């Protein structure tokens, strides 16, 4: 298994990340260390990363983002809404002329928009979303998470597949900002194909 550690430093934060070929890896605020006693007891952290330990704030944000992602995938929107800080916003990439959900909205507005998508259009019970990669900065203030999305049909086939990336800003254990990037072309094609059957 190949593994490469690298660091990125900006004016606002310093992030040291571990790259790994393990599925669903966590690259979350790792600090190089010879002390392995504080490595989080999480199956998502490889024992091969024993040279690194996660900062406490980064670990808390990693846990929060994973729980948020699980609830979002399960379409448990009231629970998702509970993660929002006061005044939280949700920005979705795209043209507002063709997609009213695109652009900047309050967190609450976005959740209501998603709730308004009928099950006949998107059967949320059959939607599967897996974390491909998760990166959290050392201070636990920002996370970047990549999702693999697919929808299982009644015959077991997967006709809708997509990828999405979210940049999530966290403050005092709550989400204050989400920026979501998703390709709407596969979704549009899926809806069009359903309409022709």
UniProtKB/TrEMBL annotation:
InterPro entries: NTF2-like_dom_sf, SnoaL-like. Residues 65-177 form the SnoaL-like domain. SUPFAM superfamilies: NTF2-like. It holds the Pfam family SnoaL_2. It comes from the Eukaryota. Gene3D superfamilies: 3.10.450.50. This is SnoaL-like domain-containing protein.
